[in-house]
Amino acid sequence: MACGFGILRVEVVEISLKGEGYHFRTITPNSHARILDRLSTRLAPEDPTERLRWFFGWNVGVGSSIAKNWLKSSTLKKMQSSSNKWKVERRSFKATQTFKSKIRFSTHGDLIWAHSSFPTTESDCIFFGPDTYRYFYFLQKVVDVYLSSCPSEEFKLIDIGAGSGAGGLFIAEEIRKKHATARTHVTLTDINPRALQFCRANAAVNYRGEKIDYQISDILKQVNESFDLILSNPPYMVDLEDSKSAASKEGQARMYRNGGGTLGIDLSLRIISEGAEKLKSGGLIALYTGIPILEMGIDPFLQAFTPLVSKGDMEVLKYEEIDPDVWGEELETRSYSNVERIAVMGLVLRKK
Ligand SMILES: C[S@@+](CC[C@H](N)C(=O)[O-])C[C@H]1O[C@@H](n2cnc3c(N)ncnc32)[C@H](O)[C@@H]1O
């Protein structure tokens, strides 16, 4: 899995997407595929920023003469000489379109994140998508409502399943904006080693806080410290081979999707039970997750987490529905045959 991420780190800075007007919002895979189809019938754009959006946002494959025109020669040289993560993908788009970025860049406000290119079919892809944006909105609310008096001494937060590092880096910036004297210490964890390489690269361009740690961990099993804030947007789908739209290229569950158990909620429950043991008194868990709502409107997550909250000496500050219906196409699959809808929920817990 060596991918030349030293190069990734340099590229995020060197490509100068930041500060050159580049902006890109990653949309759902189905919508992205539609836009790619549309762009394949269009003439290449004249505008330099739009060219960067085609290449690093939509991941359009281009021929070598276009690539020479669109990209800085230093960038192109690196792409040609680096590992397969940046290389030519001849079969990916059209035979003549030999350069296709294996990395996508998405933005939110002033921040920019590198993550896996489209389509994200490999089992160890680095996720970033509409869920990430909803996660940002949820975290923004957590800062506004529950962190109105953030202590000026070191404030320790951890993002579990950090992926590109999006949530942890975003909230650190929001805390910094709201509380000029706050000293954040951010820990970004993921079970996928590739994710931590992306976290490092993205922190290099986005993080202005005090201290940052990176740790491979299965939820919190390998973490020994305690925190003021534990946040997560964990996988929440059933990503089995029978899931029509979900089966990965390799027939393996994808780490960024597979929430575990028959309903996809097991990792979310582990975050609550393991999180309770790692929270300082008064500390918060902010969990953004998807829940299958069963027939008759039953919420199996609510039923399962309620005893964990009292066992962990915590209280529920908020449990709210953020979106009533996501990934509706999954309802056609066997795994979701008894599910009415998949809802996105935001849960905020406080340790007593
Ligand atoms: C839906 S993605 C979210 C990524 C990122 N937080 C975001 O919002 O864009 C879920 C992430 O959890 C990670 N993950 C999956 N299983 C995990 C586990 N058991 N422990 C820690 N992280 C895990 C995946 O590798 C993936 O990066």
TrEMBL record:
User: Which GO terms of the molecular function aspect are on file?
Assistant: nucleic acid binding; S-adenosylmethionine-dependent methyltransferase activity
| Record GO biological process | methylation
Question: Which part of the chain is the Methyltransferase small domain?
Answer: 150-248
CDD domains named in the record? AdoMet_MTases (cd02440)
Q: Where are the transmembrane segments?
A: none
PROSITE patterns reported in the protein's UniProt record: N6_MTASE
What domain of life? Eukaryota
Q: Which GO terms describe its cellular component?
A: mitochondrion
**What is this protein identified as?**
Methyltransferase small domain-containing protein
Q: Which organism is it from?
A: Planoprotostelium fungivorum
